[in-house]
Amino acid sequence: MLLLFKSAAYRSFIVGAVSVSSACAISYSTSYTPGIPGIKESFDISSDTVVLLGLTTYMLSLAFECLVFASLSELYGRRPVYLITTLAFACSVIPLALARDIHTILVCRALGGVFGSATIAGGPGTINDVTSRRYRALAFSLWSLGAMNGPAIGPIFGGFVYQYLGWRWINWVILCRASVLAVALFLSKETYELAILRARARTQQEQTGDLRWCLFWNLYVGVIYAILFLCFVSYPIAFQEHRGWLPGIAGLGYCGIAPVSSSLFSVSPSSSAASSPVIRGTPARVRSPPRPPSVPYALGAILSPLGEFWFSWTAVATTTTAQSSSAPTYTHWIYPILAGVSFGMVNTLIFIYSAHYLAGSYPIYAASAVADNAMVRYVFAGALPLAGHRLYESMGIAWTGTLLGQVEVALTPIPFVF
């Protein structure tokens, strides 16, 4: 891979701009959920499912358009795709903030997902363009840090903005962030050497044609990410409906997820050697031996179901009104919030590992390989929350979490085998 820029500061600027743009697009998906009560009140809607379609349409748009924009970035370059889509993303937020009915919200959310997916789809390719092998794991960790913290950051700032300014101002805040990012991307240069990549494309595709890594990692990451997004259904039930917290304070429940993602940022680069795959067709003299997943990643796979069980059985009431004439009592609030530490650890490690691993396996098609993974991830994350509220109502937090934990147990061997 050719390095087009010698300045380390400029390469850091590119990585930072793409990482923050990805975080903005992801946080916009979940910042919507704290404002759902306000939307229902504004438009006299009684069904939670109808309003939750705003989350689903956004995530499904992210899922399918990732493939489109990843391909476009490899045909026409990164910069024009980023500029056009970031400006379009900002424009799609304006009618949503001024919406007079739920239909406008759903359409604008879908459009926002379409245009917001560009930096998520092209980000891994951009990182491959501007970083050397020595610093690539560090750059991927930085990008993953923004993308993985986005779902947790969204409800935190969204909850406080909704509580003090109303649900429309959530969109105005996102508009300000998108405008700043558009300026940053405008100041960046093209990072993709199209002529060289086209000359090598078909040969490299034949050399890296083993799709097993994509198939199994797509399934695993999709399920884990979807279960993370179910937190944005279960947390409001556990903290707002059951414990009676205000939206802003309830949003702080996600603080268990975000800080651990930041702390693991320093761990992942040190284990980059353990996640370096063997590329088929690479000469034997330069080929690295295959290595199993490192201890942190394996630990993350094991902790995934444990965290789900932990949250499920500490978020429920210890006594109910049927057992006592007084109000139900709960375990201390710190216990279910600490379960978020496990969620944050698992999702960060798996997200970093899968992005770095797939990009290393398909270097010429890094953007497309990771975009394919993103499509599966966002389809799962967009579809599962629709059934989540009904599932938690019928089975309760404890037994729904137990069911999800059993699914995670069944998928645990994937990081060890692949």
UniProtKB/TrEMBL annotation:
This is MFS general substrate transporter. GO terms for cellular component: plasma membrane. Pfam families: MFS_1. It comes from Aspergillus uvarum CBS 121591. GO terms for molecular function: transmembrane transporter activity. The chain crosses the membrane at residues 12-30, 50-69, 81-98, 104-125, 137-157, 169-188, 215-238, 244-267, 295-313, 333-353. Belongs to the major facilitator superfamily. DHA1 family. Polyamines/proton antiporter (TC 2.A.1.2.16) subfamily. It is a multi-pass membrane protein. Keywords: Cell membrane, Membrane, Transmembrane, Transmembrane helix, Transport. Residues 1-418 form the Major facilitator superfamily (MFS) profile domain. It is found in: Cell membrane. It comes from the Eukaryota.
